[in-house]
Amino acid sequence: MASTSNTTPDLSRGRPYLAIPGPSVMPDRVLNAMHRGAPNIYAGALPDMVAAMWPDLRAVACTSQHVAAYIANGHAVWEAANANLFSRGDRALVLATGRFGLSWAESAKAMGIDVEVMDFGKSSPIDMSRVEDRLRADGEGRIKAVLTTHVDTASSIRTDVPALRAAMDAAGHGALLAVDCIASLGCDEYRMDDWGVDVTVAASQKGLMTPPGMGFVWFSERARQRCEGSDLRTPYWAWGPRAEPSEFWQYWDGTAPTHHLFGLREALTMILHEEGLENIWARHEVLARAVWAAFDAWGAGNPRIALNVADPAHRSRAVTAARLGAPDATRLRDWTERQAGVTLGIGLGMAAPDDPAWHGFLRVAHMGHVNAHMTLGALAAMEAGMIALDIPHGSGALRAAAEVIGRA
């Protein structure tokens, strides 16, 4: 038998793990539900299934209000929200805590909306007192809506939405509140009605565990009435016929996204009728804290390693942004994908792609269909990569993460 002593084993063989903040891991049950022939789109099982699914779409956002669905990604539901909320020249106040807040502002500005941005940086939460002061200064009530991200997928900052609503109420301002939950829905606790949110946007490919291609806008009756005259609304983006269709095709303004619907039906069953939203929020809390514990331990031996958000209260439970220092984050991401079958997220928006500093940031997703062994496995692969690449790091990270999970 030939010797294999000089052979470098390929340890990436087996099922890969996509630990990026979307698309998230798709459950086999969701994929199997989609693996079928095309259905009748005019009558029968598909329309019946969709009619029964709309209450679950409301439930996942914790709302009794309206919901419109689109064949679209997250950027498209920004446009859907913009088109229904605003007329040309209306003012939006965007509260940005990372790249995706700024992107929503750019989307609105490109549509002819008068956009004012309060940028709180890449690592800091919204300063609610500044928001209250700004709204108090708007004595003429020119600001029609406040737009923000619940979780900015790039920075992993989580906004305290109830505190934001309280600041708006304290200012006595009548602006609508619109929240991007694309990264957080089905991961972080979110209660649209209880928190006084008027518009929520989300997409299928993260906490909802369904392939990219569907987007959703939930909107309050207050928002519907306030925005009836919005002149940016077009037939495709109009939320009214989608929320209250008289014929099945109006849900989509045309042909239904048939196979996405089969997958989404299975995902919503898993989320709402099996695990339950509060249990899902608790699972994501534990997995996030395990990731944070590992980074804290690694950073004790190398101050270049640190979490992007200092205060745990302001961190997402769906994704964690961190820095390792350039070029070590890129080196580690390359190693874990190539040698261990684990794909980590790029450090989006933390530096320009042509800036050498870009290679110092990464993100670890722990959203959706993820459990303890997947998270612990990703962390172990990262530590193996640090060892292989001689990246200095503190000890005890895996034990710290295991203790979080073991004591949950």
The ordered string of helix (H) and strand (E) elements is EHHEHEHEHEHEEEHHHHEEHEEHH
Low-confidence stretches: none
The biggest beta sheet reads: 7 strands, mixed
Percent of residues in helices comes to 25-40%
Strand order of the largest sheet: 2-8-7-6-5-3-4
> What do we call the CATH topology of the largest domain?
Aspartate Aminotransferase, domain 2
Count the E strands. Answer: 12
Overall shape: it is: globular
Q: Helix count?
A: 13
Can you tell me the CATH class of the largest domain? Answer: Alpha Beta
Give the CA-CA distance, first to last residue.
49 Å
SS-derived structural category:
alpha/beta
Key terms:
single chain, 408 residues, Aspartate Aminotransferase, domain 1, 5-stranded mixed beta sheet, 2 domains, alpha/beta, 7-stranded mixed beta sheet, Aspartate Aminotransferase, domain 2, 15% strand, 13 helices
Describe this structure in words.
By secondary structure, the protein is an alpha/beta fold. It folds into two domains: 17-24 and 276-406, Aspartate Aminotransferase, domain 1 (Alpha-Beta Complex), CATH 3.90.1150.10; 40-256, Type I PLP-dependent aspartate aminotransferase-like (Major domain) (Aspartate Aminotransferase, domain 2, 3-Layer(aba) Sandwich), CATH 3.40.640.10. The chain has 13 helices and twelve strands. The strands form two sheets. The protein has a seven-stranded mixed β-sheet, sandwiched between helices. Helix 4 (99-110) links the parallel strand 3 (91-96) and strand 4 (114-119). The longest helix has 24 residues, at 277-300. The relative contact order is 0.16.
